[in-house]
Specification:
The structure is a single chain. This protein is of the alpha+beta class and 471 residues long. The chain contains nine helices and 23 strands. Strands 1-4-8-6 form a four-stranded antiparallel beta sheet. Strands 2-3-10-9 form a four-stranded mixed beta sheet, with no helix packed on it. Helix 1 runs antiparallel to helix 2.
Length: 471
């Protein structure tokens, strides 16, 4: 056998092999072309979503494939879409929604009237809800983000969850194997017999096999759902950790300078023995940097957000001895302090308290060490344009302290004072300050029910709303 004969035979063999490949490609690809034209997603529309959901991009549709890209933040966040599936085929489909498998954190709910059937030459509305159902553990987040990429599909299936042709009952994988064997047998036969019409024969066989297979494939409807769900982690520093953490944890975090989750104005409910439940709030976190000698507005200061009870400052008409010698100080650091939960008592710091004096000859500002103390006039009010509280005849210790962050944020001044109001049993009420009125010997300063400041005699019964520090 000469060289030319060998080349000729190899060439013929290559042509036959090429014909075989063409035939196989025809029977594999042809059904998908038919299906793509007969069943399509005609419309997709978002009809509901929770407030925290962000739609990164509108759903992208390509024949029977839909791609979603959304961001969720909190448990319960969801988005609901309406899908319109257009079946232009003469075949009625059976739809198996069991192929929608929920992720550990995300659920996919599929709803429709008679979901199991997609009738011939009709449209069907299918509703798909994507919902954040279970909290993702913190260690799953990367840069405060957790991304889920899922692929799901709706497919034809019988009660045994096997994909099969509902008309013939022939399992698709069985037919595929049988078809492959037939094509291979024809290929072998063609090589051995060296038929001249091999090319034509292979094309005819390929098309002939494709036709029944197309009928089978056209009955296998797969609606592919590709989801890209991004879960945005909750910034723990934005949460009110003050309300959640116990007092020991709060004290440890304050000591270590870890203020994540502790914000001025955050509140926490506590139970006082004999006085019921009351709220305390973070009133200050800033340091004292302007020479303040009183520690009462320095660092982490907590005050009662409401009024615990009502008491007179003294049993007589006198402010002699100021806060230091008052019946009120004894009451606050005795009865009220003892009513606090023991875990709170354990973390309260002893605080240096400077308080203003009255008009008694020879008196100067007073210094005490207290666990609990009433606020001073300056710790609530900054001077406005008038009605000044810094005058020597009002609060003599005005310059020894500063305004608390809470009241500063509320913009409280002697002319803008609504933010200083507190309630007793649900109604606005007057409450005491620790500052003796410098212009007389009988009264102490107070906050009126409307938030304005004033003064009244020491025997008056006004609200008690103390503060304390943790350091």
């Amino acid at each position: 056998m000469g060289y030319n004969d060998i080349v000729g035979r190899v060439g013929k063999a290559m042509k036959k092999m090429l014909n075989t490949i063409i035939a196989i490609l025809i029977f594999v690809l042809f059904p998908s072309f038919v299906l793509a034209e007969d069943v399509q997603v005609k419309e997709i529309k978002q009809i509901e979503k929770s407030e925290g959901v962000e739609i990164v991009s509108e759903p992208k549709v390509s024949d029977t494939t839909i791609k979603f890209d959304i961001k969720l933040k909190s448990i319960g966040d969801y988005v609901k879409y309406k899908l319109v599936i257009d079946n232009k085929d003469d075949i009625e489909y059976e739809i198996d929604k069991k192929s929608f498998e929920n992720n550990e954190y995300i659920t996919y709910e599929v709803e429709s009237d008679n979901l199991e059937k997609l009738e011939a030459n009709k449209e069907k509305e299918i509703y798909l809800t994507i919902k954040y159902n279970k909290e993702v553990p913190e260690n799953e987040f990367k840069d405060n983000v957790y991304v889920l990429n899922n692929n799901f599909s709706l497919a034809i299936g019988n009660k045994d969850e096997e994909i099969r042709n509902p008309q013939t009952g022939i399992e698709d994988y069985s037919l595929a194997i049988l078809t492959t064997l037939v094509v291979l047998a024809v290929a072998v036969y063609g090589f051995r017999k060296n038929k001249k019409q091999f090319k034509t024969l292979m094309l005819i066989i390929g098309i002939a096999i494709s036709i029944p297979l197309t009928c089978i494939a056209a009955n296998i409807l797969k609606l592919n759902i590709e989801t890209n769900v991004t879960i945005i982690g909750v910034d723990k520093c934005l949460e009110n950790r003050f309300a959640i953490d116990n007092w020991e944890t709060i004290a440890t975090n304050v000591k270590n300078g870890n203020m994540c989750g502790y914000h001025v104005g955050d509140e926490k409910e506590i139970e006082l023995a004999g006085f019921g439940k009351h709220n305390v709030r973070i009133s200050n976190v800033s340091k004292c940097t302007n020479g303040e000698t009183s520690e009462t507005a320095c660092g982490f200061v907590v005050e009662f957000a409401d009024i615990i009870t009502k008491q007179s400052f003294n049993s007589t008409w006198t402010n002699v001895g100021g806060w230091k010698d008052s019946k009120m100080r004894t009451y606050v650091n005795g009865t009220i302090y003892n009513a606090l939960p023991s875990e709170l008592q354990n973390v309260i710091s002893s605080t240096k308290v400077i308080s203003g004096h009255g008009n008694t000859s020879g008196e100067t500002n007073f210094e005490t060490q207290d666990k609990l103390y009433l606020l001073s006039a300056h710790e609530v009010y900054e001077n406005g344009k008038s009605n000044l509280i810094s005058e020597s005849r009002e609060d003599a210790a005005y310059s020894n302290t500063k305004q608390l962050d809470y009241y500063k944020n509320q913009g409280v001044t002697t002319n803008n004072y609504a933010g200083a109001k507190k309630q007793y049993n649900g109604s606005n009420s007057d409450w005491w300050l620790r500052s003796a009125t410098a212009r007389n010997t009988a009264s102490f300063l107070c906050v009126w029910y409307d938030g304005n400041w004033g003064g009244n005699t020491a025997i008056s019964s006004y609200g008690v709303s103390p503060a304390f520090r943790i350091e």
